[in-house]
Amino acid sequence: MMDKNEWNSQVSHPLQSWEWGEFRIKRQPVSRLAGMQIMWTRVPYTPWYFGYIPMGRIPNEKEIEQLRDEAIKMNAIGIRMEPNIPREQITNFQFSILNQFFKPGRKLFKDKTILIDLSKTEEELLKNMHPKGRYNVRVALKHGVTVREDNSDGAFEKYLELMFAGTAKRQKIYSHGRSYHRLMRECLKNNIAHLWVAEYKNEIITADIIFKFKEGIYYAYGASKLEYKEVMAPTLLLWEIMKWGKNTGAKFFDLWGAEEGKGFSRFKEQFGGMVVEMAGTYDLPVNKWLYPLFRAAEGIRWKMLRILK
Question: What is the pLDDT of residue 69?
């Protein structure tokens, strides 16, 4: 059996890391095989499961059979995956695999993300920012906003307050609850997860959780207070995180999700990164009778959630 270092040497994203798997094991069954980590979720009110491989790779035919066997063992309807590969880098052979064995799935992550090349100098990074972004950094500094990494219990409690009484409620985000975030922190702090905060008038008004894995940093979660939005703390916070990532050896900053016309995307675009279309979402049906029923029920569920939103 592989240990943590052996496993992490073959994966490319924090959601496929050994540490993330250990976190998820505390909440649900997890399988590790063929260099892919599968999280199994029980379909409510049934004995069936559905698997999910977040940010893994595109399997070959032999690995697909291994995935099928594992799914059968888990009493699963199918497996969904969202490969960590830009669409333009998928080979013709990989496209043939996807077309032959997979069906389009319901996306969990956005189709696109924004990547910032941290190999550039600090001056180049600043120059590549949108003029409005550079202006917002100056505004925050003028107002006396300060930024720091703070992994203390107090800072984390403030992050939860900002997330659940502010950002998630304000933006009507379907987010995991407080217990999920507490357990994630317990498993990932002092390792992959780093909490950064921006303070104004001795109060934390913005907090970001950043994942650092191998050569990348990832904008995992962000929360802010609507009050004091005029001091532009979120922009300064992300700019300082960019500099920290660069200075600690990261080669890129994945801002993790983009959608044209959305406010969260406009915020990220001001940092001057490159919009990248990812591979997409694919389902490997295993139970050919239950899979269509599962997809129909899934569609109804999300329609109801949008109505109730």
Answer: 98
Q: Name 252's bridge partners.
A: 117, 216
**What distances in angstroms separate CA 161 from CA 103, 177, 206, 210, 226, one per listed residue?**
39, 12, 10, 18, 12
Is 241:268 a contact under the CB 8 Å cutoff?
Answer: no
Provide the CATH number for the domain around residue 251: 3.40.630.30
Please state, in angstroms and rounded to a whole number, the distance separating the CA atoms of residues 269 and 271: 5
Instruction: Give the integer Cα–Cα distance in Å for 200 and 145.
Output: 5
Separation of alpha carbons 97 and 209, rounded Å? 35
Strand partners, 74: none
Using CA of residue 175, residue 176, residue 178, residue 184, what is the dihedral sign?
Answer: negative
Q: Is 126 helix (H, G, I), strand (E, B) or coil?
A: helix
| pLDDT digit string, tens, across residues 19-63 | 999 999 999 999 999 999 999 999 999 999 999 999 999 999 999
Q: What is the rounded average pLDDT for all residues in the chain?
A: 93
Strands (E), the chain: 30-33, 36-42, 49-54, 76-82, 103-104, 112-117, 146-149, 193-200, 203-213, 216-224, 252-254, 274-277, 282-285
Q: Is the pTM of this model over 0.85?
A: yes
The residue assigned the tokens 């050994």 is 18
pLDDT score of 308: 64
Alpha helices in 118-247 (DSSP H): 122-128, 131-142, 153-162, 168-171, 178-188, 233-247
Token duo for residue 14? 């924090």
- Domain range for residue 93? 4-108+279-308
Are residue 248 and residue 129 in the same domain, yes or no?
Answer: yes
Asked whether residue 268 falls in the same domain as residue 127, the answer is yes
